Amino acid sequence: MDVVRKLFRRKSISAPSPGAMVLSYLALGIWALVVLFPLYWLLITSFKLPVDVNTGPFYIPGVDFKPSLHAWHYILFGDLQRDTIRPYINTVIVAPASASLALLLGTAAAYGLMRFRYQPRLGTILTFIGCLALAIFAIVLGVPWQIAVVAGIALFILLLQTIGRRFKRSLGNNDIAFWMISTRMLPPVAVVIPIYVLFQRLHLLDTQAALIITYVASNLPIVIWLMRDYFQTIPVELEESAAIDGASRYRILSSIVLPLSVPGLVATFLFVLVFAWNEYLLALFLSKAHAQTLPLTVAAQNATRGPQWWYMSVLIVIMIIPVIAMAIALERYIARGLLVGAIKG
Amino acid sequence: MGVERQSQDQAPSGLALEGPFVWKRVLDRLSAWAERLAGNVFLLPAVLVVLFLSIFPLIISLYLSLSRFKFVKGGFEIKFAGLANYRKLLLGSEKRHFLGIMADPSLVGWLVLAVVVALLVRSLVRYGRSRSLSMGGLLGRVVVAVLVSLGARYLVGTLGGNGWPGTLVVTWIYVFVGIVVQYLLGLGLAVLTTQRLPGRRFFRVVFLLPMMITPVGVAYIFRMLVDTDKGPFQPIWQGVGLAGFSWVNDPWAARAAVMIGDIWQWTPFMFIVLLAALEGQSIEQVEAALVDGANRWQIFWHITLPQILPVSMTLILIRMIEAFKIVDLPNVLTNGGPGTATESMTLQAYISWRSLDLGGSAAIAYILLLVVTFMGISYVNLIRSRVAEE
User: Fold this and answer.
1) Domain at A81-117+202-345, CATH class
2) Residue of A12, A22, A28, A223 to mutate when probing chain B, most B C-beta within 10 A
């Protein structure tokens, strides 16, 4: 008993005891294996010839099968080179741009929802939705869209000045937040056709801008919800004392709140980056030859002869390398201790 | 205000000072104006962007779900069809596919049902005795309780005995099992990697990897892995005598394969968000508790968990919304089969959309929207707000 107790005693407050360390490593090791084995299989598949994939499991390159670079050659220099490089560049531009924009707008909105009280009138919102529905209905019936939009706006202002004022009920911050997240509840299949029509009218189909706008809009709710909760952990006293010293709201946000929530910012950024990097269905509709992104290229390897595992593996491998590099670079910012002593100081 | 007026009065007197003074005044005005508008400046851009891309699809797909889409000469035709698409799903030819078949529950099913109803009655009685009793609150809770017990009866009926779960139930199973397992795994891993272990940064990066692969890619990777003939686990299958066995032929095995893939891919999301929350918590309380002689478990239960609860609740809500939209894994891994055993609602919408039944697809999407909204609202009202109060 005594030995066991000694094994689980901590040496110092922050360091775990030797026994706990062994158990932790065991658990971490098992999950690391679970995570890494499929990736290892992916990697070696990219070096296999079709015959190696099709005749049974082979595990170690050089031992039970002869590694071949044919798939890599085909993707990077051969027939598929042109089809790979353009989607690659598109993905590299679209994903970080949309993630940064979503983080910028979303963080500001999350801070606003944390520290201000918003009271949008229910009447205003209902009249707005009503007028929009009428305008869309009019367009469906064949009215030119310019006229419909102008008429809709005019009707909206008119109603707002007359009927809208009678509704005294207003919504609160939580309602706004819930509305934001509820926009993610429709599955992409239902969203994609209207968005396609929308961008077609704006002549933005098959451009990177269309993808960036769509991804920003679909990622904003996630950024807002996550950042709102991270902001909640920052003591309000810090901001109050800064406000007393005469700092403006913008300054408080940029030089106090943001530096203190770096772990949350980094985690959120990584998530929305990955979402935009890997998005498939919206990209399938909004892009053709010009703005195509990588997930489409991966899915395209499922040919009529069945999935081309070797090409697919190469594509997935080269697709995750940049994101892994990003994760390694950013991981250090998800670190403890930024808040330690902040209140006393 | 007083200060401002004073500077106004003084400004004209000193001619030499006029230039800088005017500028300063303009700047002051501007910054005061900016300060007043701060709330709107923070929120409005986000609201406008989301509004721009959300209201429009919402209205259009509602219209689509009420109509029939047909190709005619030189284009297409959208014909208003009332509730026909919904009727088909809930009562007509697609009922078995969408809702499944209800049968008399087995003994276990009855027991589960009894436990659920007992718990609901207990919470209602408890609320009835509490001080914050109000007519609206009671009514809302009764409605929710009735809906939940009807839902439980439906689940028990389709899952046990001779029942057959439709896409609605299958989606629920994916969401529920997936979230519970992912949350527990993610939390455990996050707690383990916040310890001062040498090499923890390696583990952190490794644990993030599955999230970074495109969902279509994950689905294809798992299709390679679960192949009992050419996949890496073939010797194991052979050893157990399942060499020719195909996951895809057994409904529950196929569903398990889908869930394993989903858990593999999305545990990292839970992990990274919880990790950031754990790292963001203030360490002082923990240290104080350690000095007072609290053990690890007590610290975790009483100090760490309450601090990460708000983030956890948000995390579960986001994952819930996303998990309802699961489509790539069942599509690639099992193609929805055997039969429709692994089809999720989104996959069903996707399939009918591919066969150009846009109205039916939009109707499924709208039912999904209603289900998720109901779950989301009851979750936010009943659980999240309670946690936030504590």
Assistant:
1) mainly alpha
2) A28
